[in-house]
Amino acid sequence: MVWLCIGLPATADDADRHWSSRLESRLAGIDAGFSGEIGVYVKALSTGETLSWRADDDWYLASLIKVPVALTVWQRIDEGRMSLDDTLTLAQSDYVDGAGPTNWESPGTAMRIGELLDAMLTVSDNTATDMLIREVGRDTVNRHVGELIDDGLGEITSLVDVRRHIYAELHPRAFGLGGMDFIELQKADDDRHRLDWLEQRIGVDRDAWAMTSLDLAYDAYYSRPLNSGRLDAFGQLLETLASRQALSSRSTRQLLATMTRTSSGDDRLKAGLGSEVVLAHKTGTQRRRTCHAGIAMQAGQSSDEGVVIVACTRGESSLERSEAALRAVGLAIEASGVLLSPDGPSSRRE
After folding, report:
1. Are the CB atoms for 325 and 30 separated by under 8 Å?
2. Four-CA torsion 325, 100, 62, 299, nearest 10 degrees
3. Cβ contacts of residue 82 below 8 Å, gap of 6+?
4. Which DSSP category does 150 fall into?
5. Most-buried pick from 7, 136, 163, 275 (CB within 10 A)?
6. Statement: the pTM of the whole predicted model exceeds 0.90
């Protein structure tokens, strides 16, 4: 595919071009060889220079929204209103389908806030996320985002409400489903069996639904300003973390350290950036949508000297091909030289 060409050695002309120009050329090649669309935002914090590739479009962010949830919780910790050792009780209504250890715990289990934050960020635990949103309040999370950046991010909802909104596009009765319903729903092998399950569960014949395709339901949901936003706005949010504007120095170190242990993304940006780069990051994945965002630093570099990267894909049904495109974006960023110097090309691959 076209994006594979970005691994070729740089030409003499590349050495005379600014990193953003080199990166833009490579992104054009990736975009041309990808069946969907890519969006990329890069900012070198040491110089303030940026690159935007569809970064002012509205993109569905999926689990990237767990970063502002974490920022809100850690702000409460900075204020002395919460601590990492405080506990929340897992309720039956908290369960949401997805990865992570929290779903294996029994209702009534007391779980440390530090444990929930770790699960939410490192393995993208949805149930842990909804427990934290329940504790601080969804309105508080959205208000806090508005205090950190001017605009550009849509309303953040709970993860169970994401599912409700999607399936309510088929029929409004689906908004009454709970987390355990969606856990059962995800056990279905394919879309046809999911729709069969939903028809039986809500007790409404499919002929009375607004639409009978999950692809159409997701498209309708994606058109709403929920859990979405501009990539440059999300990059600005990451910048407030990197520059210690969002949190105290201690909490900043703790949150960044947690994000460097994120286990997902090995086949996305991280694979392209190379093993020498320290990446404090988060991924997001949903139907025909993938994202990867973080703060990239060389070993020994402070976060405010790093590079903010936000990249998403849309429109491609294959997760493997979407991740390959994000991996190619990582390779292009590394090859541009922005991670080493704002003006010099990378020495590793060129």
Report:
1. yes
2. -60
3. 73, 76, 113, 135
4. S
5. 163
6. yes
What are the domain boundaries of the chain?
Answer: 19-64+228-336, 65-148, 159-222
Q: Residue 242 and residue 53: Cα distance in Å, rounded?
A: 22
CA distances from 238 to 51, 139, 179, 226, 262 (A): 15, 20, 30, 19, 16
Q: Which CATH architecture has domain 19-64+228-336?
A: 3-Layer(aba) Sandwich (3.40)
The tokens of 109 are what?
């289990």
What DSSP letter does each residue of 50-80 carry, written as one string? EEEESTTS-EE-GGGGHHHHHHHHHHHHHTT
pLDDT tens sequence for the chain (350 residues): 444 444 444 444 555 579 999 999 999 999 999 999 999 999 999 999 999 999 999 999 999 999 999 999 999 999 999 999 999 999 999 999 999 999 999 999 999 999 999 999 999 999 999 999 999 999 999 999 999 999 999 999 999 999 999 999 999 999 999 999 999 999 999 999 999 999 999 999 999 999 999 999 999 999 999 999 999 999 999 999 999 999 999 999 999 999 999 999 999 999 999 889 999 999 999 999 999 999 999 988 999 999 999 999 999 999 999 999 999 999 999 999 999 844 444 434 33
* Whether the Cβ atoms of residue 123 and residue 101 lie closer than 8 Å to each other: yes
Task: Give the residue among 167, 174, 168 at the shortest CA–CA distance from 191.
Answer: 167
